[in-house]
Amino acid sequence: METTLLYLEDFSRLTCEATVQSIARENEKGVVALDATVFYPQGGGQPYDTGMIESPAGKFLVEEVRWTDGIVRHIGHFEHGAFAAGENVSCRVDAQRRMLHSRIHSAGHLVDFAVAQLALGWTPGKGYHFPQGPYVEYGGMLGDADREKLKQDIERIGSEIIRQGKEVSVRFMSKEDMRALCRFVPENIPDNKPGRVVVFGNTFGVPCGGTHVTNLSEIRGFSIRKIKQESPNIRVGYDIAGS
Ligand SMILES: [Zn+2]
Locate the Alanyl-transfer RNA synthetases family profile domain: which residues (predicted)? Predict the structure, then answer.
C-alpha cells in the first residue's frame, strides 16, 4: 500500500497518527513503513526530515527518510522497545530542521519569481536546496550579461516579496489550469491527474512537491551569492538570512 503523503496537502503540519505497515532491517538500521506520514522524503532538491515515531511499545528515531515506489521508508533506530505491524503510532518531525529546509527551498522560488519578472527567458531547471550552498539552475546562456546587475535585480525583487509577506498556499489542478497560473509547466507533469501547485500571493504558481514556508516573510532575508554559466545551464547561488 502506498504511503499517503500528508505534507502534500498541508506543509505546516508536523505531527500525525499512523498505522505501521511493516518493519524491516537494512544495513544495521531499522526501516519503518506507515500508511501515512508527515515526514518529507528526500527529493526535488530538498533534504529529508528527521524526527521520531512513538507508541506505548517503543520509540523510533528517524534519521533519514526516502521514497521508493510509492512507499516512504523511515530509516533509523529504536531508542527503546519495538513496533508490530498494525500498531498505531504518533509521528513528529523535527520542526527546526524542517523550517530551515522550507525557508531555503522557498527562497529558491524567489529566484524563479525574479527571473520571470525580469523576462530573462531562462527555462527553470533543477534546484539544490541544501543548507550548504543552495542554488537553482535555468536553461540558457548568460553571454555578456552584466552579472552584477542581474544579481542586484534578483536580490531586489526577492527581498521586496519577502517584505510584502505574501502568503503561500497549495492547490491541486489540471495541467491546463496550471498553464494559466504558472509561468512554466514542466513537460513531465502527467495530463490525467491533478498536480500540486504552490501559489505565492495568489499570482505566482510553481508546480512543486516540496515543503514551503506559509508566509514568505519567514525567509527573513535573501541574497544572491553567485551567478555563473554551468553549460548548458545558468546557476544562481543564493543564501538566506541566518543560515
Ligand atoms: Zn517548491
Answer: 1-243
